[in-house]
Amino acid sequence: MAEPAALPIPSLDKLGVSRDRPLVIVDVDEVLGLFMKGFGGFLANRGYDFRIDRFALFQNIYAPGAAEHLDLETGRALFNEFFAGHCAEIEPAPGAVAALTKLHRRAEILILSNAPPQAETLRGQWLRKHGLPHPLILSSGPKGPITAGLVAQTAQRTAFIDDLLPNLDSVAEHSPATATFQHVADERLRPLAPAAPERHPRIDDWAELGEAIERAIHG
Ligand SMILES: [Mg+2]
């Protein structure tokens, strides 16, 4: 079997991230921003229902009154359209901006988002608009390899925050010294999101999460 192509790992220096302070790597959708709520509003404007009754994305999009979800191709097209034109309309997750602002006093913040490339401009604008002027990396696939490549560039302590268990497990596998935390911003998703608190502390309150991150990177 062919080896997967090596990921291009961005340089912390080029991103303007200091290697003299701990590094906190943070996701956007359902961590810093209320993606499901924003995407749901976008879908409602298009005449679709977004039913959050399971932890899924495209399988949750329905034509009004339909018993079967929309075909995945149409769902994906709507998802791409949302990211190209509307992803700057989502609301910040409650407490996220205040917690990151506090963390940034003593740590570097890097935003690592698995969003399509067409989201880059709007997502960067969204971050700055909400007082999060941190470097943004758009990626795809499990986040362990790219996180390990970033972490390898600093001797400082590191932390990683995401809503998705596969990303958290991937980081634990590829970058075992990095402290991992799960945060699920949307209250409707919280009971549905797979978690493994014994591996990744699950903290859905941002003030509490900020304190736990502080302890992990400075303790
Ligand atoms: Mg996410």
Set out the fold topology.
Elements: H1 12-15, E1 23-26, H2 35-45, E2 49-50, E3 61-62, H3 72-85, H4 96-103, E4 108-113, H5 120-129, E5 136-138, H6 144-151, E6 158-162, H7 165-174, E7 179-182, H8 206-218
Helix pairs in contact: 4-8, 6-7
Residues 27, 29-31, 162-164 line the site of magnesium ion.
List key phrases describing it:
five-stranded parallel beta sheet, alpha/beta, 36% helix, 2 domains, single chain, globular, Rossmann fold, two-stranded antiparallel sheet, binds magnesium ion
Model description:
The protein has 219 residues and is α/β, with parallel strands linked by helices. The chain folds into 2 domains: 12-34 and 91-218, Rossmann fold; 36-89, no CATH class. It is 36% helix and 12% strand. It has 8 helices and 7 strands, in the order H-E-H-E-E-H-H-E-H-E-H-E-H-E-H. The protein has helices at 12-15, 35-45, 72-85, 96-103, 120-129, 144-151, 165-174, 206-218; strands at 23-26, 49-50, 61-62, 108-113, 136-138, 158-162, 179-182. Strands 5-4-1-6-7 form a 5-stranded parallel β-sheet, with helices on both faces. It has a two-stranded antiparallel ribbon with strand order 2-3. Helix 7 links the parallel strand 6 (158-162) and strand 7 (179-182).
